[in-house]
Amino acid sequence: MQGKLRRILLIVNLHKEHALRLCREICAVLEKMEIEAVPFTFDGKPGAIPPGPFDLAFSLGGDGTVLYAARAMAPLGVPILPINLGTLGFIAAVHPEEWNSVFEHLLRGSVPLSQRLMLEAWVERDGKSVATASCLNDVVVSSSGIAKIIRLHVKGEKIRLGNYRSDGLIAATPTGSTAYSVAAGGPIVDPEMEAVIISPICPFSLSNRPMVVPADEAIIVEVEAEQRSEVLLTMDGQIVEPLEPGDTVRISRAPFKAQLIASDREVFYRVLHSKLNWSGGPDA
């Protein structure tokens, strides 16, 4: 990283065991280096981030904590060092015992930043924008109940993608391709690629299959006007917005990217092997 680090935010998920202990350990090291540490703790429902500026943010938790950190820090251009205290660790790839070594390499400028595509979604109702948010993993338009089919019309700015009768639709980034999208049959995409994966959820058709479209193509999802089932917009599994019949959800690339430290391609493919039992060989 360029320039001296003066102020670092620590985003601490209190639901994770040892998170507070690790936070104190990091704060002690930063204090010796005369770097101001600003701890921010939450217990499941993150609130407002303390006011900046920040030169760096530590994420102490699992992948969900990184998703929250990315939505808060990416618009500010603040890199994130994600320390994994969860179970999966696709995004939070730094083990707790490795943080000091990674941080030292970061100070020397020998750790690259992984630039990750993010998405923005706008909800339009009666010609007016009523909600907007950004995400690192995915945008999901789905039924609010179990086993209730909804009807969606999906198109790009210049192309028509089709009509879907399904439990919903996922628009995932490459980072989110290993989350809900892969469970719905979507492809795994290298996290630094520029693409959006469109995956129907349990489509009522044998011909509806996931599609990969360019990241620069805006995706427009229209909720059928005579929809009877309740419909929800969910982003990163953390932001939930009720939708009404006739609403339009416009999805496009965000004007900023998440900057993740020590989350390179080698780590990504290693996690595919260890967590998803993917062989990557001739017997895959």
From TrEMBL:
Residues reported in the UniProt entry to bind NAD(+): D63, G64, N137, D138, K148, R165, D167, Q238
Primary localization: cytoplasm
Q: What's its catalytic activity?
A: NAD(+) + ATP = ADP + NADP(+) + H(+)
Q: Which Pfam family, giving just one, matches this sequence?
A: NAD_kinase_C
As recorded in UniProt, its EC number(s) are 2.7.1.23
* Biological role: Involved in the regulation of the intracellular balance of NAD and NADP, and is a key enzyme in the biosynthesis of NADP. Catalyzes specifically the phosphorylation on 2'-hydroxyl of the adenosine moiety of NAD to yield NADP.
- Name the family the entry cites: Belongs to the NAD kinase family.
Q: What is this protein called?
A: NAD kinase
Q: Which gene encodes it?
A: nadK
